[in-house]
Amino acid sequence: MKTHIITIGDEILIGQITNTNASFIGQLFVSNSLSVNSTSVISDDEDAILNEFERTFSQNDVVITTGGLGPTHDDVTLKCIVKFFDTELIENEEVLNKIKNILEKRNKELTDTNKKQALVPKISKPIENTKGTAPGVWIEKDGKVFIALPGVPREMKAMMEDTVVPKLLEKFPPEFVTKQLTLLTTGVPESFLYDDIKSIDGIIEKGKLAFLPSVFGVRIRITATEENEAKAEEKIFEVEQKIRAKIGRYIYGKNEQTLEEVIGKLLKDRGLSIAVAESCTGGLISSRITNVSGSSAYFQRGLITYSNGAKVELLGIDEDSLEQHGAVSLEVARQMAEGVKAVSGTDIGLAVTGIMGPTGATENKPVGLVYIGLCDDKVCTAKEFRFGNERLVNKDRTSQAALEMLRRNLLGISYDK
Amino acid sequence: MKTHIITIGDEILIGQITNTNASFIGQLFVSNSLSVNSTSVISDDEDAILNEFERTFSQNDVVITTGGLGPTHDDVTLKCIVKFFDTELIENEEVLNKIKNILEKRNKELTDTNKKQALVPKISKPIENTKGTAPGVWIEKDGKVFIALPGVPREMKAMMEDTVVPKLLEKFPPEFVTKQLTLLTTGVPESFLYDDIKSIDGIIEKGKLAFLPSVFGVRIRITATEENEAKAEEKIFEVEQKIRAKIGRYIYGKNEQTLEEVIGKLLKDRGLSIAVAESCTGGLISSRITNVSGSSAYFQRGLITYSNGAKVELLGIDEDSLEQHGAVSLEVARQMAEGVKAVSGTDIGLAVTGIMGPTGATENKPVGLVYIGLCDDKVCTAKEFRFGNERLVNKDRTSQAALEMLRRNLLGISYDK
Questions:
Q1: Which end of chain B is more exposed for a tag (fewer CB within 10 A), N or C?
Q2: Does A196 touch chain B (CB under 8 A)?
Q3: A299 against B116, higher pLDDT
Q4: Is residue B417 part of a domain?
Q5: Are residues B120 and B189 in the same domain?
Q6: A213, closest residue in chain B (CA to CA)
Q7: Which of B171, B198, B218 is the C-terminal boundary of a domain?
Q8: Does A216 lie in the same domain as A91?
Q9: What angle do CA A393, B152, A14 make, to 5 degrees?
Q10: Number of domains comprising chain A
């Protein structure tokens, strides 16, 4: 089954939004042993859309379009479907009743714009939209399938999961099973990981490996395609074990896990509580920790001591140290971690102070200089990091380094890279 | 000049990363009156790459590829360029010397992998990479241009800005000037905005309008293409004024502005200081406020009072209120705003409390229930909001609503929608 995804919308071509819909479909397909062979983005322009329908429907078994199904004037997908399949739009009673029900609940009247949303191509089966009003379109022709979905992510996602993927799996049962595993590392450069992993005998041939760097670290993706699930999983497992044996200390998790989930589980399992003091990250570390549902079990409080006054008042930082070393220093980072642990009565105190830029640098302290402090019942320490010039990237990297420092501390791994 | 962008990489097809490179090029092109006509994503597969080179180079004046230029085994773009243009790879001395210099500075030795990065197609001009080692590729043939850039965003971006766009503008001077303006709204539904704007006489025909909803609000994009800059700007201005006259109160900014920048400027201009108390958002509001460089001028501190104990201890919330109304209540939100203002000695206190889900709901308090409190020297108030079921979306929407409540308070606009 060869699949192409067309994303329709000028807003994506001009870069106003990124194409997260295609990413979502790609992920969902892989996890169902289906594959996306190619994707494209085209303008809200009738000729461009018709040409792309022509080209991709002739070269693929399945074409999925997202976007352009809405009720505003810039949405032209339905019009193009009618032309391409030489059909017409008819009112679908079921869809119209559903729209009426939704509006009734919201105490709103049925407008012409709403009515338009109940029109579907005659030769299609509507795909139910459980999260919105406009239905999707499912058309079968010459053994191929054409699917049109709305561009609103949560509507599209529900329709893909509830209807499209189950129907595609029924129509095109996968011959081979593809399994993937992504190992998540942070705090170590790609070249170092690549050279280390490359040196494992036969590893590059064994599993299809890919190295994916980002500001949060390098992800290592292992892919195996085999005749059955057991074989694919066996291959993945073998490669995973070899990689872990070599660079396991840098791997904090796998697949969709986040570092905050990983440290959350470690803290919860050990019954430890934490408090965070942030200067340069301005709340980002606490926000990430509390992205995890149930984090109230271990996250006690966060103190964003942006001003020196707040550092002294809330954390008891000694004014002489501020004077002598400056707010961005190893000594103050350590005192902040110690202070937040003490005032909160938690098992662990984590603290960051740094210069995120673009302003704030001094002769000896460049933009990107960060100190992270960490205190528990055994140690009270701080470490220097040097990041780059971009403020928001520096915030992300600082938050990741702080959480990784916490993870390594909890697992007794030294922070050497 | 017709342009197509090819992004090469399985990691994008399977949705492991989203295609931000294509978005960046789209934005950069629009701001230079160039346009991207279509984009595609294909696999790291030689046949797929060669087919896509063939198809797109025959249909466009300019083809830009990103990705697959790196030194690892899964990078095959250069190999395909050599085949497609029937050329060969030669060592470029200038590039090799640059790589040697970079490595020397980092105290590292030249490896075979590094050497490979100095190979360029014979018929190409290398594009200098100021942020990394691998150069880009610029090939002219039959009046058309083929450009290959690395996939690493900051390397690709620098090369696009410093070399590619200037050279393209010289080779293909734009005939028409395109200008765009995006107005940013929040706290009001798309259908309401659309119906209101649609009612402005002739507005839909005057400027090309697009409505782009997201969790942060609805963006309204105005596009004008005219024979010169003045005419395009005049048209944009006319449409902008008409839209502002109708729904101006909901517009917080334009183009790339963020709500935190807007409130930052308002606070700074008026010499006001702010402190934030967060429960359910866990630091996200403070983190957003401090995303703005120079925010230390008005942001004094943030208190993330996740536990009830922290609310009482740090904000002086009255225990009876917590008992009687619960931590997620209008009364506690108001007290939190009042408390954080008092303990911080700032002009404004902003506070949120709510249930982000998926757990934590009670019979009367569903997931998505949020209270936002705001106190300044004149008023001390709180407001109820009801969001959805997704934890991270709820955090984003809560942070946006809190900042918008602050904006409207600073400008004396009531929060009615």
A1: C
A2: no
A3: A299
A4: no
A5: no
A6: B152
A7: B171
A8: no
A9: 85
A10: 3
Tell whether A157 and A186 lie within a shared domain. no
Domain boundary among B239, B254, B269: B254
- Would you say residue B378 lies in a domain? yes
Interface test with B, best of A195, A304, A305, A403 (most B CBs within 10 A): A304
Residue A118's pLDDT is 87
Lowest-confidence pick of A193-202, A367-376, B138-147:
A193-202
Q: Is residue A416 part of a domain?
A: no
The string of pLDDT tens digits covering residues A241-292 is 999 999 999 999 999 899 999 999 999 999 999 999 999 999 999 999 999 9
Residues A185 and A296 in one domain: no
Give how far A15 is from chain B: nearest CA, Å: 4
Q: What is the CATH number of the domain that holds A217?
A: 3.30.70.2860
List the single range of A111-120, A359-368, B47-56 with lowest mean pLDDT. A111-120
B305 and B223 within one domain: no
Cβ contacts of A50 within 8 Å, gap of 6 or more: A80, A83, A84
User: In chain A, what percentage of residues exceed pLDDT 90?
Assistant: 73
CA-nearest residue to A47 within chain B is B37
| CA pair distance B312, B310, nearest whole angstrom | 5
Which tokens hold the place of A70? 């809405």
pLDDT level of residue A312 (50, 70, 90 thresholds): very high
Name the token pair of B107: 């105290």
User: What does the alpha-carbon distance between residue B122 and residue A80 come to, in Å, rounded to a whole number?
Assistant: 44
Best residue of B306, B336, B343 to probe chain A, by most A CBs closer than 10 Å: B306
Query: Among A11, A74, A310, whose Cβ lies nearest the Cβ of B301?
Result: A310
Contact between chains at A14 and B214 (C-beta distance less than 8 A): no
Whether the CB-CB separation of B367 and B360 falls below 8 Å is answered with yes
Tokens 């997201």 sit on residue: B214
More confident residue, A11 or A22: A22
pLDDT score recorded for residue A74: 61
A91 and A7 part of one domain: yes
Give chain B's residues under pLDDT 50.
none
Given this model, what pLDDT does residue B73 score?
59
Together in a domain, B294 and B233: no
Interface residue B206 vs chain A (CB under 8 A)? no
Q: Is B273 on the interface with A (CB under 8 A)?
A: no
Whole-number percent of chain A with pLDDT over 70: 97
CATH number of the domain where residue A17 is located: 3.40.980.10
Q: Please indicate if any CB of chain B lies within 8 Å of the CB of A72.
A: yes
Predicted ipTM beyond 0.85? no
Q: Are residues B80 and B128 in the same domain?
A: yes
Coil/strand/helix, residue A318 = coil
Peptide bond into A358 cis (omega under 30): yes
A296 contact residues in B (CB cutoff 8 A): 306-307
Choose from A21, A206, A301 for mutation: most chain B CBs within 10 A.
Answer: A301
| Closest Cα in chain B, distance from residue A143 (Å) | 23
**Residue A205, pLDDT above cutoff 70:** no
Instruction: Judge whether B294 is closer than 8 Å to chain A, CB to CB.
Output: yes
- Which range marks the domain in which residue B316 is found? 261-411
Q: The tokens of A233 are what?
A: 């999983």
The full DSSP string for B241-263 is HHHHHHHGGGEEEETT--HHHHH
Q: Mean pLDDT in chain A?
A: 92
Rounded distance between C-alpha atoms, residue B59 and residue A12, angstroms = 21
Residue B71: predicted pLDDT = 65
3-class SS letters over A351-409:
EEEECCCCCCCCCCCCCCEEEEEEECCCCEEEEEEECCCCHHHHHHHHHHHHHHHHHHH
